Structure formats: C-alpha cells, structure tokens
Automatic annotation (TrEMBL):
It holds the Pfam family BET. Its main location: nucleus. It comes from Ascochyta lentis. Residues 136-156 are annotated as: Disordered. GO terms for biological process: regulation of DNA-templated transcription. This is YEATS domain-containing protein. Residues 1-133 form the YEATS domain.
Length: 264
C-alpha cells in the first residue's frame, strides 16, 4: 500500500489562576492540550486514526507520563513553568508511532502547532480510517487527483500496452527501468521491492508524467509492441500486412540511447 500523509494539529489553551506558586514571580496557570487531524479542506476532524496518545511531561510533575485513549486526547494540568514535551501518537491497527515535539509556553492564551505525519504502508483497516480525513489510495480507490492523472494519461499513453511492454523487456533493460523509476519518482510514487521473490512492483498511475513518457519511449525502442501496419497486395493480388516499428519513425518516437541511462 502507498504511504499516506496527514497533518496533525495540536491546540493549547492556558490562563493564569489564583493560588500559591512554588516559585515567586511565576503565577500558577491551568492549561490543556487537544490533538486533532486536518482533512483535505483544512477542517479539524477527530483523530480516530490513533488509538492512544502519550504525553511525556516535565519530570517535576507527579504524573509525568499520561495516557489518553479517547480522541481528541485532551490533557488538563496546572503548573507555573513552560517546558518542552513530546507526545507519542499510536496509530490504530498496528500502524506505528508518531512522536511530536511540543512547546508548552504562556505567550498566548490559545495557540496551534501543525505537524505533518506519514503513515507508512498502512493496512486496509487503517486506510479506511484515513479516508475519513481525505483521499488515500486503497484497493483501487483513488484520489481525485490520481483519477485526473489517469484520465489524462489514458489519452496520451496506453498504460496497458506500456505494462505489457515492460514485461517483455530483457533483464538488462529491466534494470535500467528500475533505475529510471528510482531516479525520477516523486513522493506520490508507489513502489515495492520484493527482494525475497526477486520482484519490483510499481504503480504506473502514480508516476510523474515525464517518467511515464520516458518509460513509454524506452519500451517502444526495445520491443515490437508498438507497431504500425501498412496493407498492400502481393503479386497474386492477396493482401499483405507489413509492420513498421516506431523505431523506424524517429520523428515520432526518438530512439533512447543506452548511454543515457545511469548504471547501478
């Protein structure tokens, strides 16, 4: 599954309160923190993708490690001093931990901090939760942007022919293809290197347009998949079909020279 990125918003409220302070000149304050997820429109949504939040507070607190399991994982505390803490968010369905550093300060009564997090190779159950806050590729369900890219590419490149052509390449040519993908992929590109089975997987629809064009041209120059045909009659008057490969039409599909590809 592809990695999925999201923005986490940490909202802090604080205010001075009556009561004695252990340090002169530093009044006691009450403060609370809530954790929210942002959807693709920038709206706050409950972070149901996380099963718990652990706040690691200053060692001077009696309870300096506090665990909350109900979104938005609100913590309420009192104290006189500012300090840095870290908050560990544990994703649902064994999706891993995200550790966020947070600056508790008393400069404003309310302030926000945003952190981008990445859910790496999330399981289908976690992907379903992630889709509540925005698009995520899962089991053929694509984001609007991905669908637009697919529609646009279908008009310029026959992706099925490209996939078939890639499977017909020689081992050396496939190594070049893997290098091309690694050198030109973006953060949206989904790849999986299955070392155990000796396989390299790539979702062609997540490749940038420039890389799709490179793969198309290279595959066309190495295989006979993309052939044009002309029909004429033989001396006996029977129709004959003659293939003309794209490498015979350099003005349409320029031949990619081998030296243009990086070596491993």
């Amino acid at each position: 599954m592809p990695d999925v990125k999201r923005w986490v918003k940490i909202i802090t409220h604080q205010k001075p309160i009556d009561g004695p302070s252990p340090v002169e000149g530093f009044p006691m304050r009450s403060w609370n923190i809530e954790i929210w997820l942002l959807d693709d429109q920038g709206n706050e949504v409950l972070p149901t993708v996380y099963e718990k939040a652990v706040y690691n507070l200053h060692p001077s607190f009696d309870k300096n490690k506090q665990v909350f399991k109900k979104p938005p994982f609100r913590i309420d505390e009192q104290g006189w001093g500012e300090f840095d803490m870290n908050i560990v968010l544990t994703a649902a369905h064994k999706g891993g931990d995200h550790t966020l550093n947070h600056d508790l300060n008393f400069q404003s009564e309310r302030y926000e901090a945003k952190h981008q997090v990445t859910f790496r190779n999330p399981k289908p159950e976690l992907l379903a939760l992630l889709q509540d806050s925005g698009s995520a590729d899962a089991n053929g369900v694509r984001s609007k942007d991905a669908s637009k890219k697919k529609s646009r590419r279908d008009k310029a490149v026959d992706m099925e022919k490209l996939a078939d052509g890639l499977q017909k390449l020689s081992e050396d040519d496939l190594l070049h293809v893997v290098t091309m993908v690694h050198d030109n992929k973006t953060s949206e590109t989904y790849t999986k290197n299955d070392v155990e089975n000796g396989e390299f997987h790539v979702d062609l629809y997540t490749l940038p347009d420039s890389l799709v064009k490179m793969l198309w041209d290279f595959t066309a120059s190495k295989t006979d998949l993309f052939a044009r045909f002309s029909i004429h009659e033989d001396p006996d008057g029977q129709p004959v079909t003659t293939p003309h490969y794209l490498k015979d039409f350099p003005e349409v599909t320029p031949m990619l020279k081998r030296e243009n590809f990086p070596d491993f």
